[in-house]
Design brief:
Radius of gyration: 56 Å
CATH class of the largest domain: Mainly Beta
Number of strands: 65
Structural class: mainly beta
Number of helices: 2
Shape: flat
Oligomer: single chain
Largest sheet: 8 strands, antiparallel
CATH topology of the largest domain: Jelly Rolls
CATH architecture of the largest domain: Sandwich
Helix content: under 10%
Length: 794
Amino acid sequence: MLSCKQIFKFSIFILFIFSINNKTFCQNYVFAQLSGDPVNTTGWTFQGDARPNNFTGSTGAELLLCPAVFNSSGALFYNQPINLSMCSKWIAEFDFRMYDGTGADGLAFCFLDVPPNGFVNGGGLGIPNTANGLKVCFDTWNNCIPFDPSTVHQNMPKIEIRWGIGYDNSSDPNNLIYGECENGQGPTRDNSDGKISYIRSPNYNRAKITYDSGNINVYVNDTLYLTGYQTFNFSGYLGFTASTGGYTDMHTIKNVIIYTQMPPSFAGTSQSFCPYDTIQIGGPATPNYLYSWHPSFGLIDTTVSAPYLHLPNDSSNSIYYKYYVKTSFSNNPGCASTDSVILKVYPDPRVHFVTPEICLTDAIAQFYDSTYTGDSTTLPFTYQWNFGDPNANAGNPNSSILKDPTHHYSAASHYPLTLAVTNSQGCQDSLSKIFTVNGAIPKAAFSVNSVPSLCSNQSIGIMNESSVDFGSITRVKIYWGDSSLVSYTDSQPYPGKQYFHNYPNPIAKTPSAYTIRMISSSGITCEDENDQQITIQPSPHVQFSPIPSLCDYDSPVVINQATELTNLPGVFNFFGRGISPEGLFTPQLAGPGTFTLLYKYTSTNGCIDSAYQNITVYAPPVVSAGSDTSVVIDQPLQLQAISSDAIFDTFLWSPSTGLNDPGIANPVAILNSTIDSIRYTVMVTDTTGCSADASIAVKVFKTSPNIFVPNAFTPGKATNSIFKPIPVGISSIQYFRIYNRWGQMVYSTSHMGEGWDGTIGGKIQETDSFVWVVEGTTYTGVKIFKKGTMTLIR
């Protein structure tokens, strides 16, 4: 950015130019520039092959748009857009050079709606096909005059003003004239007179391009070559594109400066300061300028050119803030520029210090600083201590600048102690504490928690009752008496604070005595001690062994797995579901499940011990042996026991008469003529040892297998109330059907033992005759079919 003096000189120069040529307009703001060595590219973006460097060894830093290689392209654009619908004037000046190769294409200065992406190599000068806006082209290759192979890369440059989308560099069918030199999008200056051959040259040429509300002028080395008119009512970006294509040349630029009519924005120079310091950013105000700052955080006023600002920093690290100012004309607020400034807020020192615990007879108080910061650039710290001692004197001053000072206090009292710390950047913070010099006469005291008995299996508690003539006890040390090496030190004691200890719990029947010693201190050298003897009663020791599982039908059992090991006199009780206090467990009362039992033993000395153990009660399996049935002599009968347990159950049938294997779930029974009927019982035992049984009655007929059906039945009576077939020696029924006199089926089943109750759809049927049919299969696989009639009697 130009200094005020430079801006003034430049303004005088522009006024002079305006007085000579009224077509020139006054620009007073350097919008963007590329200068310095190395060149300062802040705010500019390189794309493609473009990069900063010094390539030709000439004076001044250069920027490469594309190197002298085939199919190279690049671009360089300024990041801040200009809205030409509001800011309608700009001037661009730059030096350009295209040489060092075989002659290839050229470069363009552009105003585009978006920065370029997707470059076009060759005749497109790097301008993307989708790029919309103004393109001022300096083209070196075969343009607008007849094609001559001997001079195609030496004397055929052109200068063009183009607008619209892309470059549209099509060639004519005869390959004689390249580009739109006669009916193109904008004015073109060709080299038919040989006066612009220098466009491609080892020397730099100076270009100037002006835009004023649509009026476009193109100068090279102070000579006006082209004028045109085209407005651009959008916000766009200024910059350069270039490409080589099938030949080679190096395309470089330098000394770039762009002026606009926008008022300059000045956010000020970067500053570093302490939290909540009031600073001023920005610069002097200009009449008829409008200013707008953001963010507003910490600013006193966001509408002035140089607002005051103060910012916090409650962290231990430096914090950076960035503020932007937007400057515009009061008569055209939409035409504005922006600038930004980075501000650094140092952290204040995080002040901490450690105070000693002293009493009046201690020689000195040693203080230790522990102030810290997360920003090492703010070190070292400087210190200012104030000991708050009204009795201080020249030999024992009340202040110190040491990091870890000492001070002697001559009276027991509370003192206001303050430490102020300043870091290397001048940021300061402080911390104050009340520092107590305790009295020199502490008194150690404690009481043992009041309980009916001190038992060996319980924590023993004591309560601190120590005191001092002034201030507070700063430390207590406790020896519990069960080992000369075991002690406990508390550096934060207070009256009423309790301490607990577990003594050894031997399996013994005799009491144990211990001496508890408390040493209480009010400082480094001031202390007192107190001893008390306690007697700890022996505690019972309970053991509760695992309990075998039971079945819920088992008789009550006495739980004898719980015992007391020391033989201390006392009483015991059981607690839990299904158990009496005396230890009688009733499975039926508990029910199936797993339950926790508590065994509690209370000795006559008041000490108690207890233990828990689980007991599991299992439900027996649910067993079925099937429905009662009938067979004929010497016919096999398949028995089938079913258990609610899926696997691993054991089965035992009794009696074993006629069974092929009484120890399986599905034995086969064959009964001879000596047996009229028999009842088999199966006992099933599951994996838990619980068992259950079921039985089936079998009637033996001394006939061949058959199906017997009665000829009448009386629904609702005590006997013969269901009309059903009676299978003998039949393994299964395929169907049993009943029809009324009109051929309507009123009942059907395929299950043995089922029959008709004399209703149809829930309606009671009156006396009438019905037809039945039945088909079954014997145990040997023979089909039996029968039919007949029966009478329903009411």
